[in-house]
Design brief:
The protein is α+β, with helices and mostly antiparallel strands and about 450 residues long. The protein has three domains: about 220 residues, Rossmann fold, CATH 3.40.50; about 80 residues, Chorismate Mutase Domain, subunit A (Up-down Bundle), CATH 1.20.59; about 100 residues, no CATH class. The protein has 14 helices and 19 strands. The strands form five sheets. A six-stranded mixed sheet has the order 3-2-1-4-6-5, sandwiched between helices.
């Protein structure tokens, strides 16, 4: 007796229960074989299963003349299945890889259309997974990259789900023939100048001719690597918990880590923890550029080194490493008058100031450092501001945007710093709230 083999609809249903309560399901619908089968499967299941409302999204890249007819085809298919369709036109940015640029434009559109708690379903299958593993292996990817495509991940306000990753292309083709589906054949899919097409049409056929189970084996290897990456992520979270010690400046809304806690780790664990920490902040460096971390870590204690990354900089100061997004320097250096000190003062691109207690009388203004400032410190007389800031340990990258309170030509206070932020009698204290991460600091 032959073992029971679940049908394609049954296999798909097994992947869907965790997502049944989503407010909406969107199907990424190119009109090709894979997405046509997925759309047909879901539209058919919706007739007998209580699924969330279905809709389809077709992204038109405008890269080839043949694509101009595809929205009409997609609309006809969706109308026949009674599924609403949204057609989105995107602008693909020129670059070295048109494949990557088109993919980025497509997923940016998907993210914008995936609302809170909603689900976007895409039709990548097991053959795509094997192809992705080979492609990334040839590019020298690490464990995370070789884990290939995850079955699910956050997207926009909701999630992306790939419910067909355990399904072969042959199974999708058989389903399409059985149900007499019509789909688009993209001419660019036969162009072997594209790396993925070369793998699909030339490399994988050779592999499967020699090893018939090659596609399934490669996809299984991707699963093992994805599992290994999950363990590395767990280790990273453990290491980062030890390194996430509060700094002496809790009011500074920048991600930071204790350098000493990182330095007790092996170099491999340092890189693993930093990759995990930096992933939501910036595009990660390739292997050749990790020497920048060694330079930052090993610099002399009195140095203030930095490591430039794609979307910002990593600084070392006061025993911590700090992440500064590229937007950190985007603020106005112009002075501001403060005619009503009883109300908070908004600083262009630099948060706001406010007083606790009774503000000082007289005309007040805010300036930024120019160098050579002197301040009268209770019990210490006149002191250079530079020396006072050095004593405080305030990171150097903050000092240029530190708002200074003046009354006429007299420097009255430096916010947030003990001994410098209040008057001698304790009538008032100056507080600075720098821009939060939501305002572009990370």
């Amino acid at each position: 007796m032959k073992p029971f083999k679940p049908t394609l609809p049954a296999k798909l249903l097994q992947t869907l229960p965790p997502w049944r309560n989503a407010p909406a399901w969107h199907i990424a619908f190119s009109g090709g074989l894979d997405s046509t089968v997925l759309l047909h499967l879901l539209a058919t299941l919706a007739k007998t299963e209580p699924l969330p409302p279905l809709s389809a999204i077709h992204v038109h890249h405008g890269l080839q003349a043949a694509a101009d007819a595809w929205p009409v085809h997609c609309q006809a298919i969706c109308d026949s299945l009674d599924v609403p369709l949204k057609i989105v036109r995107v602008q693909v940015q020129p670059g070295a890889s048109i494949e990557r640029a088109a993919r980025e434009a497509r997923y940016q559109a998907f993210a914008q259309l995936t609302g809170a708690g909603e689900l976007l379903l895409t039709a990548q299958h097991r053959d795509d997974q094997a192809e992705t593993l080979l492609f990334r292996l040839l590019r020298g990817a690490g464990v995370r990259g070789l884990g290939a495509m995850p079955a699910q991940r956050p997207l926009g306000g909701g999630h992306l789900l790939r419910p067909l990753l355990d399904i072969s292309r042959a199974e999708l083709e058989a389903y399409a023939r059985e149900h007499q589906l019509a789909w688009i054949e993209d001419p660019s899919n036969t162009d072997s100048r594209f790396s993925r097409n070369f793998l699909r049409h030339h490399v994988l056929p050779l592999l499967t001719d020699r090893w018939p189970q090659a596609v399934g084996t490669l996809a299984r290897s991707a699963e093992h690597l994805s599992e290994a990456q999950g363990l590395l992520d767990e280790l990273a979270r453990m290491d980062l918990m030890a390194a996430s010690q509060p700094s002496a400046f809790p009011w500074l809304p920048l991600p930071s880590l204790s350098l000493a806690a990182l330095c007790v780790l092996s170099e491999a664990r340092q890189r693993n923890a930093l990759r995990y920490w930096l992933a939501p902040l910036t595009r990660l460096p390739d292997s050749d550029h990790w020497a920048g971390w060694n330079t930052l870590r090993d610099a002399k204690s009195d140095a203030q080194p930095l490591w430039c990354l794609a979307d910002g900089q990593l600084h070392r100061c006061s025993g911590y490493i700090w992440w500064l997004p590229a937007s950190w320097s985007d603020f106005s250096h112009a002075p501001s008058s403060w005619p009503q000190p009883e109300n908070p003062l908004q600083l262009p691109g630099n948060g706001h100031l406010h007083f606790s207690g009774n503000p000082p009388a007289g005309l007040l203004s805010i300036r930024y450092r120019q160098g050579g400032e002197v301040m009268e410190v209770p019990g210490r007389g006149r002191r250079d501001l530079k020396r006072l800031l050095n004593e405080s340990g305030l990171p150097g990258f903050v000092r240029g945007r530190l708002p200074l309170l003046y009354q006429g030509q007299q420097l009255l206070a430096v916010p947030n710093l003990p001994g410098l932020a209040a008057d001698a009698r304790g009538d008032w204290q100056l507080h600075w709230m720098p821009p939060t991460c939501d305002q572009g600091l990370s």
